[in-house]
């Protein structure tokens, strides 16, 4: 059994992991302990708010609704990657869920399907609400996802969880039947768990360049397609082109261009791809590849490990993340490549490549 961390220890753990934190109102004493138990705790649960706007979302999660008093979580993670602490103790975020899922979280084993709702989750999980409309269209920025990873890793590290697996972090949709959060372009719980597991192998302040960080704030690169599709023939690695980018204030249209990151730098890159034409059970491959200049042309120098999801639900929306290095030599740059082995061509209807990077 795990005794919940004190407010001071939660704050210290988050800051040690490199999380930007805002303490909101009287979060340290704001809870629902009068309504039920708080602890023992066993994991971290991720949600989306179904709202937009930081100030209003944070206030809602602090105060609650007429039918559900606050706090509605312990921390609100905004689009920029800041965690706003709104409660400490029991919070109305998880509700009742599947006891078999809780058993798997405690044992750090593969999660079973959630089929029942008979176990009190508010007593057992820390909860983070993340600002997102939840309509499966509102994108999840890389900075926000990185904050989810770091905040989750911070609490797992403080409790000593994650030594036998990585399922101490779950989504609301994996706990309570009928829930869908978190969802949308740029996030998947399997990716979150993998990245949390990778962080826990490093020291708390780890960053991709291997240095302990204090104020080492990464830069952001964001490209996507808009009204631009790409046909992918069978058995052929195809490079995706992106025809607009975000300059920090607005989206800027540009001629289609394949490169989404330019060296020298260390990076964490997330790629979301929406594909039409896949059949159920068909594999679709995604990877990022480093290119270098040779004889006036760019040629592939190396490729990161391929993510190969199987289209097992009749849907074609995939999200993948890689961490790596683009060297200075030969004007290196990063591109996105896809492949499939189906009988007919498929179409990439939309793609987004978002990176946090540290110039080297």
TrEMBL record:
<feature type="domain" description="N-acetylmuramoyl-L-alanine amidase">
    <location>
        <begin position="27"/>
        <end position="183"/>
    </location>
</feature>
<dbReference type="Pfam" id="PF01510">
    <property type="entry name" value="Amidase_2"/>
</dbReference>
<feature type="region of interest" description="Disordered">
    <location>
        <begin position="200"/>
        <end position="221"/>
    </location>
</feature>
<dbReference type="InterPro" id="IPR036505">
    <property type="entry name" value="Amidase/PGRP_sf"/>
</dbReference>
<protein>
    <submittedName>
        <fullName>N-acetylmuramoyl-L-alanine amidase</fullName>
    </submittedName>
</protein>
<dbReference type="InterPro" id="IPR002502">
    <property type="entry name" value="Amidase_domain"/>
</dbReference>
């Amino acid at each position: 059994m795990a005794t919940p961390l004190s407010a001071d220890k939660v704050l210290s753990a988050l800051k040690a992991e490199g999380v930007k934190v805002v303490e909101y109102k009287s979060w340290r004493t704001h809870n629902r302990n009068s309504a039920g138990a708080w602890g023992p705790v066993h994991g971290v649960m991720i949600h989306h708010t179904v709202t937009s706007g930081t100030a209003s979302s944070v206030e809602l999660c602090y105060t609650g609704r007429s039918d559900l008093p606050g706090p509605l979580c312990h921390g609100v993670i905004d689009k920029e990657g800041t965690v706003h602490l709104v409660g400490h103790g029991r919070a109305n975020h998880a509700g009742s869920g599947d006891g078999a899922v809780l058993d798997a979280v405690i044992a750090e084993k593969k999660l079973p399907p959630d089929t029942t709702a008979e176990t009190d989750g508010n007593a057992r999980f820390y909860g983070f609400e993340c600002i997102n409309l939840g309509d499966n269209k509102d994108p999840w920025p890389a900075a926000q996802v990185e904050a989810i990873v770091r905040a989750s890793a911070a609490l797992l590290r403080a409790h000593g969880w994650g030594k036998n697996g990585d399922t101490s972090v779950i989504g609301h949709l994996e706990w309570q039947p009928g829930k869908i959060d978190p969802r949308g372009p740029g996030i998947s719980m399997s990716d979150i768990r993998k990245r949390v597991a990778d962080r826990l192998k490093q020291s708390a302040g780890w960053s991709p360049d291997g240095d302990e960080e204090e104020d080492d704030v990464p830069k952001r690169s964001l490209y996507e397609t808009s009204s631009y599709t790409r046909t992918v023939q069978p058995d052929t690695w195809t490079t995706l082109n992106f025809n607009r980018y975000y300059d920090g204030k607005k989206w800027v249209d540009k001629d289609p261009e394949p490169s989404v990151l330019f060296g020298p730098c260390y990076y964490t890159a997330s790629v979301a791809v929406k594909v039409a034409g896949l059949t159920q059970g068909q594999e679709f491959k995604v990877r990022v590849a480093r290119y270098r200049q040779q004889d006036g042309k760019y040629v592939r120098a190396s490729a990161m490990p391929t993510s190969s999801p199987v289209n097992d639900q009749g849907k074609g929306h995939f999200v993948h993340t890689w961490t790596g290095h683009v060297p200075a030599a030969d004007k290196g740059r990063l591109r996105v490549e896809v492949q499939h082995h189906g009988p007919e061509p498929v179409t990439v209807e939309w793609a987004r490549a978002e990176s946090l990077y540290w110039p080297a």
